[in-house]
Amino acid sequence: MSVHFGELAMKFGADGVISPGEVLALRREAWPDGHISQAEAEAIVALNHQLTSRCREWVEFYVEALGEYVVNQRAPKGYVDAENAAWLMAQLDADGTLGSMAEIELLVRVFECAQNVPVSLKDYAVAQMEHAVLEGTGPTRDGGMLEAGNVNAAEALLLRRAIFAPASERPRPWDARKPKCSSGSRMQRWARTTPPNGNICSCRALPITCRPTAIRMRS
Known about the structure:
Blueprint: H1 3-13, E1 17-18, H2 20-30, H3 38-50, E2 53-54, H4 56-73, H5 82-92, H6 101-113, H7 119-135, E3 138-139, E4 145-146, E5 150-151, H8 153-163, H9 186-192, E6 216-217
Parallel strand pairs: 1-2, 5-6
Antiparallel strand pairs: 3-4
Helix pairs in contact: 1-2, 1-3, 2-4, 3-4, 4-6, 6-7
């Protein structure tokens, strides 16, 4: 990591807010050759933990840079092994809180770009997304908004992207039969209860836990 990048990251994160212009400066400094070092990746994660407000440009940079680093620059290329998954989870959990929508978007991006990820990361992603659906607020990369206690279009889109990503345990074509929620991994149960149109199934089961939920469905 260049000294200048580290200084910029510390400077931009000092007030808890980052502007689109500051994101552009970081992008130019950290990614001139398309390569992100581990020190730079960890500095980007640390900066995200410092922020209390995140513009869309920051979320884009965070997701693109770290997704590329985790999937294509850490060996084995194109895959996320147990060691790399443990590194990623430790980075996201470093501040002891769930974190931001940027982190949820990053997990979805890894699922979309990697050919396979370990079960530990799949279960971790499910837990993070469950929390985001139940309690998350704020903007997503796609311009939608999360609303605590609601399953809205933006949240359904995130679930759909994760379920049908290459590294996910994608379900068979949706056939309207009642899902068998008593067996299979958490990701499989989650997939079986969410049809391709992104809506929660008619049994009103929360995808992660397969039990009735008090989430208010939007009309």
